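Bench notes, afternoon.
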Amino acid sequence: MKKFLCFLCLCLPCAAGALELSEASRQEAKLYTTFIEALYAQREGSSDTIDLLKEALSYSPDNPYLKRYIVATAILQNQFKEAEPYADFITEESDGEDWTVRAAYLLKKNEIAQAVEAYEQALKHSPDDTRIAYQYMLVLAYVGDTESLEKMEELAKRFPSMTSSVYLEMGNIYWRSQNAPAALTYYNKACEADPYSADARLARAKFYERTSNFFLMLYEFEQLEKMGYTSADMFTRMGSVFLLSKDTLKAKEYFEKAVKLDPGNPSALYFLTVLAEEQEDYAQALNYLQSARDYENTSGKWLQASFYQEKLGDRKASLATLKEAYKKFEGSVEIGYFYALALQDAGENRASARVLKKIVRQRPEYADARLAYAYVLDSLQKYKQLEEQIQALLAQDENMHAAMNLWAYSLAVRGVRLQEAQKYAEKAVSLSPQDASYQDTLAWVYYQQGKLDRALDLLQNIDYQALLDNAEIAYHLAAVYAALGQKDKAVSLLTKEAASWPLSKTLLENIQ
């Protein structure tokens, strides 16, 4: 550039004297003007920079400085092909900067060994240039072999300001080669070389985390915090260690610190959500859940939100959340399944059936969805389709007692094919003898067959708490008592435990 500037100074008096420029002088003037245009274009981030540099080079085709500038700009602008024709810019007069650009070019070509040699040439010409030394160190760290480690050790001694960084990279190399003791040795050296290096302490903390020394990791983070270093990730990891040690108050404090630094941090908000759920503070859990920046695009979190809304007693909001999620995550079988169940709970059986039918077509092997579809078909009194689904379920699993019980109960309620109902009900009870609902189904089959004593034995053996929790079972026992002429017992059940069952009022009127 000195040559260009000298020319400009010479050019001014010539212009003042109105002297005619020689052809060589005009070429050099064009070179200078075009180069200045290229500099401005580069400053503005223009794509014209390389074209302008090429034009400048046309006025001085062998200029190594311009060639180097084109190569450096092409690499910077990620236009590597533009660099190749000009990569011969190295001469006997090349300096450290030239060799550094050459090294960067070789790295782009993935010629790592040659790049290392180029950096060594750069340091030979600029032995005190820390910037070149640092780039050289990073390439050595990438290579990571024994020779590279030796060269890095030399760099650490030669450039004291880089010692901590060099040892940190050496620690990383040893960790990647699964030499944990050596890795820790160099992480320790990095911290000793610069006790205030956040990168060194973070690396050592990460080492402790990977080797399950969580409390040593916590100590490193606490030191970093005292130094004034903060990050949402660090606070989240500190919170998780406190959570591990069951110090939930301290854990919450650090998760909140993380959220303060990064309001949408998914990890910190996940833990805060869990803590709020454990406290049964579902409103706060919902707030944390929906504050995470990945909420909108995570189907599982929408399901979780609907669960919290259900826990808060807002079934309308829960159903609305599932409905919106079903539209948003179109084709999500999981969302569809829970949406269908919510529709059933809301008494919207036809809508539920449509959703479940689609799921069963998409995923024929999804037994839970098919079973839910069978339940809703029974509610809609579509018995032919119900039977098809029951048979499909039993074809998948011949011991699926839930399907057997559903089919047996459906037949019993309708009072048809009672022998078949008995067969399925008895098998369901044999497969799951403690299930009160299965015992109730078999008892109701016996009742419909007129086998009242058998029905009474089964129902009386059902745990009383199950009777309190299920008005339908209580109604069935009342019906059996009534059929056996034990009207007082029947009335007692119908006015208490079975009072909420729809048919109880009619049976009570008939008895009275």
